[in-house]
From TrEMBL:
Cross-referenced InterPro entries: AGP_acyltrans, Plipid/glycerol_acylTrfase
Identification of the protein by name: 1-acyl-sn-glycerol-3-phosphate acyltransferase
SUPFAM superfamilies according to UniProt: Glycerol-3-phosphate (1)-acyltransferase
Record domain Phospholipid/glycerol acyltransferase: where: 71-185
Record bears the keyword NADP: no
Annotated GO biological process: CDP-diacylglycerol biosynthetic process; phosphatidic acid biosynthetic process
Alphabetized PANTHER family for the sequence: 1-ACYL-SN-GLYCEROL-3-PHOSPHATE ACYLTRANSFERASE (PTHR10434)
């Protein structure tokens, strides 16, 4: 009962605080055409305060030196909290590739679109391909992206097969992919339930992987996923089945 109550409190806080930061940022976004200010708020105010309210302390493993320029951060996905976690720990102004349904939500959708995040409609192949092209343009223009190659949150906190979409973007843009592992967030708030059990969340960031070192997107995907699984196990996660690297349904989705 307490977990459900905390879950609803965090949900309400999330909605109200996001609306507040959105409307505070709106004049600047409209004047400059840039989504950097709301991302700054997300990194230094919205995410830390939301995680604090959720009773979740984030433990970040020592990070490797990251190269200058845009990067694609590819992370496993255990929980809705992962967005806050990545905003908090990644030392970059980043954007997300996210499912199109999120862009239809009141306030949140406008926040995502004006902030420069990239929608992908996984139910429409033509639209999905167009979204990948848009993501490639965003990266080539110098913006780092966060992607969840599993396509959805894990039900069992394991790392599931990856979709090819993010790696198509990486190969075409020639941008390094940085493997990221998150462990513990799925226990704090599991999928399909509004409840929070406070607990630690651990994060590990791996060395960048250059697309130039691989013959195609499948080889790149396989190596990045292998590294995500190794990082996940290193921080106490269950890892995943390395033999089943590529998602067989909706492979071009994100």
């Amino acid at each position: 009962m307490l977990a459900r109550a905390r879950g609803f409190v965090v949900l309400v806080y999330c909605a109200i605080s996001m609306a507040f930061f959105f409307f505070v940022s709106l004049p600047v976004m409209l004047l400059t055409g840039s989504g950097d200010l709301p991302i700054w708020f997300a990194r230094f105010a919205w995410s830390p305060s939301s995680l604090w309210l959720a009773g979740s302390r984030v433990h970040l493993e020592p990070m490797p030196s990251l190269p200058d320029g845009p990067l694609i951060f590819a992370s496993n996905h255990e929980s809705a909290l992962d967005i806050w976690v990545l905003f908090k720990v990644l030392p970059r102004s980043v954007r997300f590739i996210a499912k199109a349904e999120l862009f239809r939500l009141p306030v949140f959708g406008a926040y995502m679109r004006l902030g420069g995040h990239v929608p992908v409609d996984r139910s429409n192949h033509v639209q999905a391909v167009q979204s990948l092209r848009q993501a490639g343009q965003v990266v080539r223009a110098g913006t780092s992206l966060i992607v969840f190659p599993e396509g959805t949150r894990s039900m069992d906190c394991r790392v599931h097969p990856f979709k090819k979409g993010p790696f198509v973007v990486a190969m075409e843009a020639g941008v390094p992919v940085v493997p990221v592992a998150i462990s513990g967030s799925g226990k704090v708030t599991p999928k399909r339930i509004i409840a929070i059990w406070p607990g630690p969340i651990r994060v590990a960031v791996g060395e960048p992987v250059s697309p130039a070192d691989f013959p195609d997107k499948t080889a790149l995907l396989t190596e990045v996923r292998r590294r995500v699984i190794a990082l996940h196990r290193r921080i106490g996660g269950a890892g995943g089945d390395e033999a089943s690297a590529v998602a067989t349904v909706g492979m071009e989705g994100v």
